[in-house]
Write a structure and sequence with these properties.
Helix content: 40-55%
Shape: elongated
Radius of gyration: 64 Å
Largest sheet: 4 strands, mixed
Distance between the termini: 180 Å
Number of helices: 12
Structural class: alpha/beta
């Protein structure tokens, strides 16, 4: 809601107050209509005119104000002047004002003209650092702040910062930067894995040990979740008993013996005859009369 108060100021004439109020209200009508268009004021507007006793003067002021508003392209609803000298109207806002076109809101104070104090900004920065340190995922935090806030933390909050470092095993590095806005805190996290790999570069470069290949029994798994059957161990080969070679007939040499070897080794050959042949030979010796060994037995 917008209120406008009309006053005569030093131009008041004590002798003719009614005439002075009438002239002042007529001049105010044209200027009020001009300012409404210029500032593009919208909403409910209440105008407090100077009190007038003559009804003709009141009607003349209303007529003059309607004429001044006729130039305005915005939609306007106008009422009459009340007994208290107040005129009410509502106006539709058409476009941005000159102030909104010519200026922009401050990115730091958001158009309020205020910014956080040094203590409040430092406390907010400390809480952000504390929330990152509590997570325990980093071994070092690099914090960039405006110079004033960085100095305040290092001087006034040094004991709290040391407690954070000892409690959560983290290193805090605070740097001042004049280019950072007042209410901004830049926190760079350095994870523990990066530090470990930097301290032991050889271990990081070495490839991870390869897993042992799966055995044939694991690969050939029986479908249905059953355990694969175990293979039996190899059996030792049994020594077969060699069959005795068939004896060649008496007086016959094997085929693989050459003629020269046969002649040289005839005397060394032992011919084994079957038992039946030996009995027949013995009986023939006894029966033959020509045998000199059997003669003495017959003479006896």
């Amino acid at each position: 809601m917008i209120t406008i108060d009309v006053n005569s100021g030093r131009g008041s004439n004590k002798k003719n107050i009614e005439e002075t109020a009438f002239k002042t209200n007529i001049e105010a009508c044209e200027e009020i209509a001009r300012q409404l268009r210029l500032r593009d004021l919208g909403g409910l507007i209440a105008i407090d005119f100077i009190d007038m006793m003559d009804k003709k003067h009141i009607a003349e002021v209303e007529k003059s104000f309607k004429k001044a508003l006729s130039i305005d392209k915005a939609r306007i609803q106008l009422s009459r002047i009340s007994k208290f000298g107040i005129l009410e109207l509502s106006r539709q806002k058409k476009q941005s004002t000159i102030q909104e076109i010519s200026y922009m809101k401050c990115p730091y104070c958001k158009g309020s003209g205020l910014r956080p104090s040094l203590e409040y900004a430092a406390l907010g920065a400390f809480r952000k650092v504390e929330s990152e340190a509590v997570k325990g995922l980093c071994c070092e935090l690099k914090i960039n702040l405006p110079h004033e806030i960085a100095d305040y933390l290092l001087n006034r909050k040094r004991s709290e910062l040391l407690d954070l470092e000892s409690s959560f095993d983290v290193t805090l590095t605070i740097c001042g930067n004049s280019e950072i806005p007042w209410d901004r805190v830049d926190i760079q996290q350095i994870a523990k894995e990066h530090i470990d790999s930097a301290d032991h570069p050889q271990e990081a470069d070495e490839p991870k040990g390869q897993e042992a290949p799966a055995t044939a029994e694991e690969e050939k798994a029986v479908p249905g979740g059953e355990k694969p059957a175990r293979k039996r161990g190899r059996r030792r080969p049994r020594h077969k008993k060699r069959k005795p070679a068939e004896s060649a007939p008496a007086g016959v040499l094997p085929d693989n013996v050459s003629d020269g070897a046969a002649e040289d080794g005839l005397s060394n050959l032992l011919i084994i005859q079957p038992a039946e042949n030996q009995k027949d030979a013995a009986s023939e010796k006894k029966a033959s009369p020509d045998d000199p060994a059997a003669a003495p037995e017959d003479h006896k």
